[in-house]
């Protein structure tokens, strides 16, 4: 088994501890030795990473024998010592054949603007932030995998990029790969079709030290792709590589995934991000206002509270309201402090739409059921009779009848002109199933909750 990242760190700490005792000049140690890292043990080669060409030259020319002796004392092995400079790391890696050129995931990369520093922490996300920071201190050792789940727009992707950026900053020689599940599926499809000649997607993924995967729920019902991911996932975890996953549901709520994969997701730590509270929303607004080079004192605090209370379903909704306010400010004659009335006026249009969307209608019911079962409105209303679509359609009819008391004839018209007897049969079927089918009962309960 290859030496894990944590083992390499412990070995190098022991080597540095010995060197510190033998080197008389403390300034020399702090300037040249303290910043080095063990990059790799390759056969009988002990490769040391330096942070500058000066350090590279100084250590290799003056302290090679001292380092060799320290390494031998710690490892009880005669290693050949070599150095690699951080600035030349990419070219050197390719020379050693460690990171071959590849064409995978060209559209995926870490976004440097997403960091822990600009992530607003509150009661709703504190646990997720703490877990994310914890794994960056020793990737692969604890909470592996880390599974972050929440509804859309609450910061999962921001945290995923923040983890990657933080690890790259502290450990520049780590291979950190951020990908979306859609990108993984696309790459797998291209690969099995032979569009990636002379390259192995699986082998490439096995070279990664930290794998960050966004929206893993989209792997549902993709059996062959999931099988590939399962194999890669097992390899990375067993070799001490860190895996972080995000999803819109907890592992146990994911549908259409092999039980083996769900159980692997549960073996680490799962953390939930909830809807932000008012205080967190206000802090987010302040951060966004300052990021736009505006003075926070120009905005009435009560107006910010109004935005926080009325647009707190998710961060994206809150940002949309703020963007509307900033646009209104730029295009209005208001140059002094933006008072609460101005803030309310600026978002009156989108609030009216938002309030209207809360009104329960047949279309909202169809949309909620579709979201739950990953189906489109067209699929639910179609003539298709596959089991999942048919069940979703029957649930829609049942909810329309029970929540809105919509006449059977009207429900039939909504669903493509079906007659009232078909609708009655569908409603009765769901009512009978609810008496014994706990899974269906849970599904309908969650759909009703989403409609509140």
Describe the structure in your own words.
With 452 residues, the protein is α/β, with parallel strands linked by helices. Helices cover 56% and strands 9% of the residues. The chain has 22 helices and 8 strands. It has a 5-stranded parallel beta sheet with strand order 5-6-7-4-8, sandwiched between helices. A 3-stranded mixed beta sheet has the order 1-2-3. The longest helix is centred in the N-terminal third of the chain and has 18 residues, at 5-22. It is globular and about 90 Å long.
What would the keywords be for this entry?
452 residues, alpha/beta, five-stranded parallel sheet, three-stranded mixed sheet, 22 helices, 9% strand, globular
Short description:
The chain has about 450 residues and is of the alpha/beta class.
Record the SSE blueprint:
Elements: H1 5-22, H2 26-33, E1 37-42, E2 45-50, H3 53-62, H4 64-75, E3 80-85, H5 89-95, H6 126-137, E4 146-149, H7 156-170, E5 176-180, H8 181-192, H9 201-205, E6 210-214, H10 223-238, E7 242-247, H11 259-266, E8 269-272, H12 278-291, H13 301-310, H14 315-331, H15 340-346, H16 348-357, H17 362-373, H18 377-381, H19 387-404, H20 408-414, H21 420-433, H22 438-451
Parallel strand pairs: 2-3, 4-7, 4-8, 5-6, 6-7
Antiparallel strand pairs: 1-2
Helix pairs in contact: 1-4, 6-7, 12-13, 12-14, 13-15, 17-19, 17-22, 19-21, 20-21
């Amino acid at each position: 088994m290859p030496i894990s990242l944590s083992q390499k760190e412990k070995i190098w700490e022991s080597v540095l501890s010995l060197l510190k005792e033998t080197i008389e000049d403390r300034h020399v140690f702090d300037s040249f030795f303290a910043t080095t890292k063990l990059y790799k043990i390759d056969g009988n080669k002990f490769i040391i990473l330096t942070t500058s060409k000066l350090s590279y030259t100084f250590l290799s020319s003056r302290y090679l024998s001292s380092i060799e002796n320290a390494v031998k004392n710690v490892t009880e092995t005669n290693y050949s010592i070599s150095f690699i400079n951080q600035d030349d790391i990419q070219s050197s890696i390719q020379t050693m054949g460690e990171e071959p050129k590849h064409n995978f995931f060209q559209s995926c990369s870490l976004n440097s603007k997403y960091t822990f520093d600009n992530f607003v922490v509150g009661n709703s996300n504190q646990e997720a932030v703490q877990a994310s920071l914890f794994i960056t201190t020793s990737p692969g050792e604890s909470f592996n995998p880390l599974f972050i789940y929440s509804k859309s727009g609450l910061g999962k992707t921001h945290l995923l990029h923040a983890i990657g950026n933080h690890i790259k900053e502290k450990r520049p020689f780590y291979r950190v790969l951020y990908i979306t599940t859609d990108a993984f599926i696309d790459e797998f499809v291209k690969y099995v079709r032979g569009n990636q000649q002379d390259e192995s997607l699986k082998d490439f993924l096995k070279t990664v030290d930290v794998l960050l995967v966004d929206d893993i729920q989209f792997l549902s019902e993709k059996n062959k792709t999931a099988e590939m991911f399962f194999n890669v996932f097992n390899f990375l975890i067993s070799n001490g590589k860190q895996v972080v996953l995000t999803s819109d549901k907890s592992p146990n709520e994911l549908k259409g995934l092999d039980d083996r994969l769900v159980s692997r997701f549960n073996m680490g730590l799962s953390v939930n991000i909830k809807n932000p509270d008012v205080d967190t929303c206000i802090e987010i607004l302040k951060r966004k206002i300052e990021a736009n080079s505006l003075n926070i004192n120009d905005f009435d605090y009560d107006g910010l509270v109004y935005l926080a209370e009325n647009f707190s379903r998710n961060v994206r909704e809150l940002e949309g309201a703020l963007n509307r306010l900033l646009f209104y400010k730029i295009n209005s004659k208001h140059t002094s402090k933006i008072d609460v009335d101005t803030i309310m006026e600026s978002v009156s249009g989108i609030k009216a739409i938002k309030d209207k969307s809360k009104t329960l209608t047949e279309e909202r019911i169809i949309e909620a059921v579709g979201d739950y079962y990953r189906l489109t409105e067209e699929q639910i209303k179609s003539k298709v009779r596959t089991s999942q679509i048919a069940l979703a359609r029957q649930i829609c009819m049942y909810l329309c009848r029970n929540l809105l008391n919509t006449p059977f004839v009207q429900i039939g018209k909504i669903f493509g002109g079906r007659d009232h007897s078909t609708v009655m049969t569908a409603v009765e079927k769901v009512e009978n199933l609810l008496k014994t089918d706990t899974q269906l009962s849970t599904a309908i309960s969650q759909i009703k909750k989403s409609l509140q």
